[in-house]
Prior knowledge:
By secondary structure, this protein is an alpha+beta fold. Helices cover about 55% and strands about 10% of the residues.
Amino acid sequence: MAAGSPTYGSRKRSDAPTSRPRRFVNVGQMLARVFVGYKRISFMEKRKGDAGAAWAAPIREKHHRWSAEMFYKTALKNQGLLIKTGQLLGTRPDVLPEAYVDVLSHLHDEVPPEPFEVVKAHIERELKRPIEEVFAEFERTPVASASLAQVHRAVLHDGRVCAVKVQYPGIENIVDIDLDNLTFFIGVLNRLDRSMDYRFVAAEMRQTIPKELDFINEGHNAERVAKDFAHVDDVVVPDIYWEYSSRRVLTMEFIDGVKITDSEALERMGIEKSDVAKILVHCFAEMIVRNGFFHADPHPGNLMVLPGPKLVLLDFGQAKDLGPEFRETLIRFTKTLLSGDMVAMGEAFRDLGFRTKKDDAQGYEQLGDAYIGKVARRMADTGEGYAKMDQFEESYEEATTLLKKNPLTAMPPELLMVGRVFGLLNGLSMSLDSQTNLMVAFAKLADEMEAERLQAGSNGNGANANGVHANGASGNGASKETRRLLEA
Length: 488
Ligand SMILES: Nc1ncnc2c1ncn2[C@@H]1O[C@H](COP(=O)(O)OP(=O)(O)O)[C@@H](O)[C@H]1O
Ligand SMILES: [Mg+2]
């Protein structure tokens, strides 16, 4: 752990409370103290009149750090979904003060692990044989520990080096309680804020999170993405070793990469951060636009870099299928954002699945513009590959005002995951000084796919969604562009 970073001290996994009210109170108290602190600063700032802003700035800064540390400590105490939330926040330097990112990024892969004895017993129970029978070597100290599992480096008897991902025993119960509390919390939020119905968030999480606890599902997801990228050199997915895996233990190829946000290591390897960003953006464009099956959790703990550069995708616990119709609408919407055709943008925004109370055309144009239209135009103007905090603040304020007059009655559940990926990628793009605009990458890839389809039609071949990957030599898509990076 880096100097000056918070430590988890003597805290152990087994200290996590397993009673629902206790878990709820821990989170509630933390949020209340953070919230009251911010309110107090704003109140004093107003009272001090002109001198207020200068007075408040350093105090607010201090409160950011204090709050981030409170969140961190509570996450370590409670574990479960609070760690997941912290991981998400720790990836967003584009929307959160630096202190939050500094402190919460430690939740990506540095959470207190289970002791080796517990891990060993768990593996033996899961794989139904002594650990020595499976592994020639097994490192007692994990290489990483995250929200739901810890990962150990080991060597199989045939010499293959592997990563063994071991689910924390009892985590299912903790996650279950957290989902109940989350549902309750969202019910309260719904009563406080009537401009939107948030229940779909709980419903979506109830569907996706338990799937994350099924490592067989995760292994299949990894293999599906590996197959989609089989002919692309600069995207790597670890092989799954099924013979040594179960629902709670996943054994796979060990990949000795560097964390995507480790700037110093990338520099030592002679890798430009913006080149990594380019591969990252094209990789997610390929998954979302072309393949319709995507890794839905691109936080820095789940992304590594190998010489080349090559991008390593880890942790397929959250992956999502998008139907062709939704994809087509998403592409259409993206293109209207870039072309600035407001009428078409409003229509596409509605077609995505948004519904407002008034259900009027102008309402969708205004809301679409507030949510993302203005941000998109600003990104196109500056040529930067990401949007910055002040742009999100403006967009948030504008959307809130609009929603007060005309509340949302429906939101597309697919967009929760896609939106999250956009958010995480925007944060990472900022950390990586990206010059690759995700929306432009989407639109370009869609055009290339259309051209391929037309060409395939005129050649008398059937359209093949995986054309670029299936036929790298004549491929002309974004993945080839990422390959060009290798040749440069
Ligand atoms: N195949 C692998 N090779 C090397 N390190 C890995 C591998 N898989 C996971 N890790 C390390 O373990 C950490 C946690 O693994 P991950 O699958 O992300 O678990 P979780 O679902 O708990 O987040 C990762 O952040 C990474 O540092
Ligand atoms: Mg992870």
